[in-house]
Amino acid sequence: MKQKDSIKKKKQKQQKEHVLLYKLLYSFMTMLVYMVGRNIPLYGIDIDAYSNVNVDAQSILLQAISGDMKNCSIFIIGLWPYMLASMLAILIVAIMSLDHTRKLSPKKINIWTVTIMMIIAAVQAYHKTQTLMYRVSGYELIWNKIIVFIQLIAGMLIVVYMCDRATKYGIGGKVSVFMVNIVSGMMTMFTGKPLEKLALPVAIGVAEIAVMIVLETTEKRIAVQRVSINNIYADKNYIAYKLNPVGATPLMFASAAFLLPQFMCNGLHYLFPDNADIQWWMDNMRLTSPLGIVVYMVIICLLTIIFSMVMLSPGRTADDLLKSGDSIQDIYAGKPTKRYLIGTVLSFSVISSIIICICQGGPLFLQFGGYVDASLAMLPCSIMMTTGLWISLYREAEVYRNMDRYHTFI
To answer: Could you tell me which Gene3D superfamilies the record lists for this protein (predicted)?
Structure first.
């Protein structure tokens, strides 16, 4: 009996010592399943009609969300409904948290997120079934559309489930899916392009790698005086805020948020096909139009500021310091501390959002002057986003690598 217990403990110890390896393998399997699924076409679709795809900034952005540039696989809805529902849930929580008497349980927030996600997915799946090209017609077409609708919903749920499992058992969660889509899009942009066309976009992309590294590694450390610790150690107790407070998260969600006005324009065009104003908005709400690029940049700015204030919660941090009796050096506790922390996070988020917008919007505007090929306009943006995601994945992997270094000695 004792021998069995010792063997069991030894196996548990070995498992704990290889946390990073297991998580990497799980993430790899998740990405493998995802890559296979995004190459499975929908039932009854005319594949030949989607053989020639126009590669531009808009199609690359769509691929980052759906993973399928041809837009005819079972995963074409992708994470868009889930990401949009998550953003709406974050906004609802932020608004309701202004009333300190109201408490929201994580279970209720999750129910809201899933409900909103299913509504958005159903509407988008219906829109897709009406716009896809089919091989059949007449009575068979009705059943074909029903099957495709079910496939689209099921594909979206599979992607969300895989990301949820990857968050729990792997590394990165939905970031790993985004990485697959972005890298695939970059490979598409590189394919068949001469060196003279690649030179400027790649050079801009390399510069943006340096910018993203600076944004991700630069931080401000605010010394905190703890009542439970001798103040000579105050420099070792601090609140750290990065220059880019929430990393590449706004860039991921901006891709999803930018599709919302497009989706609304497409819906209005479906209801009013002869309206010229709606047609104009639908044609210009793209990354191949100056208006679409400006809207995309505004979305990045807003999401960076909102996510920074909601996810870091500097006001709540100030309240926690006040309750525990701790304080920031040379700043009074209470409202002065709250104003200081909120001002710090707000200023950092504004600065980083402006820098990111310049890096993202600059190459997109260069396509109109002919300086950058339209099919390569999104390349520097993709390189910058990939850098931010890689830094996020590296930091998470580093945490699990450090866990593997600890060994039990009893």
So the answer is: SecY subunit domain
